[in-house]
Amino acid sequence: MALGICACLLLVLAAAVCRPQAGSVGALAVVFVGGLHALRLKWRRQSEEELRRSEEQLRISQRIAHIGSWDWDVAGGRLDCSEELCRIFAIPFEEAPDNFPGFLNLLPESVREQVSAAVEKALFGDDTFTLEYALPRPNGGERYLSEVGEVFRNDAGTVLRVVSVVHDITERKEAEAALFFEKRYRGLIENLPQRIFLKDCNLVYLSCNSSFARELGLEPRDVFGKTDYELFEEPLARKRQEEDKRVMAAGAAIERDEQRERDGNWVSKALIPLKDDHARVYALLGVLTDITFRKKAEEQLRESEERFRNTFEQAAVGICHIALSDILIRINRRFCDILGYTQEELLGWTLEQTIHPDDRAAEQGQLSRLINREIDNYSIEMRQLRKDGSVVWVNLTKSLVCGAKGEPKYLIGVIEDVTAKREAQELRRERDLVQAASRAKSEFLANMGHEIRTPMNAVMGLSRLALKTELMPKQRGYLEKICSASRTLLNIINDILDFSKMEAGKLELEKTELSLQEVLGNISDMHHLKAQEKGIDFKMRLAPELPRKLLGDPLRLTQVLNNLIGNALKFTSRGEVVVAVKPVGQVDGAVQVHFCVQDTGIGITPDQMDKIFTPFTQADSSTTRQYGGTGLGLSISRQLVELMGGELRVQSVSGAGSSFSFTVAFAIPVPGKQVSETPGDDLRNLRLLVLDGDPVAVEGLAEMLQGLPIDLQAVPTFAAACEALKEQPATGHIPFDMVVIDGVTAGEEGLEQLSRSISSRYRSEVAVVATVPPDQLETVQQLGDEWGVSAVYAAPVRPSLLVDGMIRALARAAARQAEREPVAPPAARAVPVAPDGPFQPDDFAAERSKLERLLARNSLDAKRQFEKFCRQVPRGSCTKELQALQACMEKLDFRKARQLLAIFPAAQEHHPDNRE
């Protein structure tokens, strides 16, 4: 616009110059010039107005943004400050500095140097500067400022001006500090083990830490905005909200311990209502602390204190706490019992008052040494005076209890009544003599076994012979009682002698060939009559896969089984007694056989279980009076089983029965050849003839045999039985494998005739089982061997018992047939040899020492140690000595084994480097 006005003015002036005569042109020029002046004035006013508006906007912007500025004319030295800068520095605008040194005087000395150095550095090349500093406020506190400046130069590089902008960043700094503290506080809350939550007045969760959310299986953000009903089950949620409402209504914080129902953990719960400046509750802060460990520790502390009190009060020795002044401050019951006083009488006394005057000096001397820390404790035997004036010998032990810094606090005294001990020392010689006499008695009984048994066997044998003669009923009764009493007495004598042998270490086991079928058959014959008399079902179950012939001690095995079965029958009044035998493993030419005797008798209580294997002891003292016995049977049986390499175990329920079991190993006569036949082979296509006129009895027997490979043929008369035995089967073999004869149906003469006929025609290939009336039982049993009857039972007999007898009869028949077959002699067991490698003399000496100790204790572990010892002897060395030693170990002759081991060459003699 200015350029256009100037151009018009120049044209008018040019026209006036060219035509000065023209007056109109001059007037026009004057008018034009006046218009131009008016336009200039208007433009100036508009510019000043816009400038004032811009400055006002700048002032407002600076005030809103808390930004001030100063402008320093370096050449003229003048400094202009903005109004906001004066407000920031808290000075009136009229007193604003007009030069740079005056501005610096507004700053503290430390800040002044910092700003001066920054401006100076910018003037000499950097052109800009930036710094932050704190400015103290008049009313306290600090104001934080951020200053950014720039240096303006001309084209020649001369400094013209320095302009700086000062920003009040106090609020930002405070916000950053608050944010920092908030983050630190939040981090602290997040890492606390306590579970923390915050609820509003409507009991809606506003926030929580990670521990609280993790307990719920959620993230903290998932808890925000939810209520207890959305996080917990309804009963628990209702309980929590009711409690929160009570706390917020009361306006007071509560804290208590509670145990959670769902897992049993203990929690310390603190609920704190948060209030504003007007004391109105606006939120609820909850802090949950898991105190399960503390509760357990408190419980353990209480238990520990209770144990200490119980130990202190119920100790078998007298305990007292003694002050350093020798006054009794605490005593237990045993202390009072020893001295005969009550606790009230003794508390407050000195210990010296209870000591015999002659022993006080010695005790005080030891006490002085203890107080002076010369010794840690001391024990002394002395006399104390009882309330009644009598003297009691005690062993007093005193020790000093010190504090954390080692300062003495009090003394602990323990007294033990040793009066009996001193009296026992005086009687020790008599006790040694008694023990020597006892050992002599055991050796005497062990050596006199045959002398004691021989007359007893004569009494029993002659009594049985006398019973076979013609006797009056009264005489027969006397002889039967003599036989019964003799058998009982012989059993007691045998038990005592066996127990004495075991105590003397003279009991040895044999290793001969045996048949489990025959052993169990003999045992069954001994016990089935007693079971029948008591009305007990007696069963024997022999696993079919067991070998027929084994190597072991049949006498001791029979003794153990007789003991267990006899006890089972003795303590069982109804139900059954079952003997089960089965193999449980076979390795290295030996088979592990498991024996179990189970009954339904009176049983054994847990308290009585530990007593039954104690010699001369029964589970209950009343048992001896009611059932009889010496209490040695189970003790002997247990030791015999251990000698055979097993362990006798018992399981019992009082009133429901007991089960005794053990597992022992038997060698197989022919290594590598399993001599066993299953009953499937023996019973396959077996034919059974039953002579019985009672269809019900035949039907019961058929039910018992159902499922077995036995063809049963029943005939009702003696003539029909004779006809059936005359028939010849298509195979040309015997017509029947077994015949069962009912004595009532056949009659006594018919039973004899039929049995003799079967025995003479088929020898022992056909087993005969007979049932007779009770009054004929003894007669038929005596003549049974002559007639060829395998087993005799009193009628009526239960089908199950009859079937057991039939199976035993078949087993004995099979055993007799097997005895006719040649049996290979048992192979000698090879001695273990050492592995390849150099001889280790140290290992040899160590294993030999272990074997010597085990042999000295007569321990059965010596057999296993012998194998380890053999593996340390060099190959090919001491072969004869090892074989002799192995024979002793097999016979459990540990005394001879120790003698052989003593003459064994020493380790140095085996060493290859030892040469003459």
How would you describe the overall organization of this protein?
The structure is a single chain. By secondary structure, the protein is α+β, with helices and mostly antiparallel strands. 50% of the residues lie in helices and 21% in strands. It contains 34 helices and 27 strands. The strands form 6 sheets. It has a 5-stranded antiparallel β-sheet, sandwiched between helices. Strands 7-6-10-9-8 form a 5-stranded antiparallel β-sheet, with helices on both faces. Helix 31 packs antiparallel against helix 32. The longest helix has 43 residues. It is elongated and about 195 Å long. It starts with a helix and ends in a 6-residue tail after the last helix. The C terminus is likely disordered.
Task: For this entry, give a set of tags.
916 residues, five-stranded antiparallel sheet, 27 strands, elongated
Instruction: List low-pLDDT spans.
Output: 621-625, 672-684, 823-827, 911-916
Helix count equals: 34
Q: What number is the mean pLDDT? A: 78
How would you classify the helix and strand content by structural class?
Answer: alpha+beta
How far is it from the N-terminal to the C-terminal residue, by CA? 141 Å
Q: How are the strands of the biggest sheet laid out side by side?
A: 2-1-5-4-3
Compact summary:
The protein has 916 residues and is α+β, with helices and mostly antiparallel strands. The protein is built from 34 helices and 27 strands.
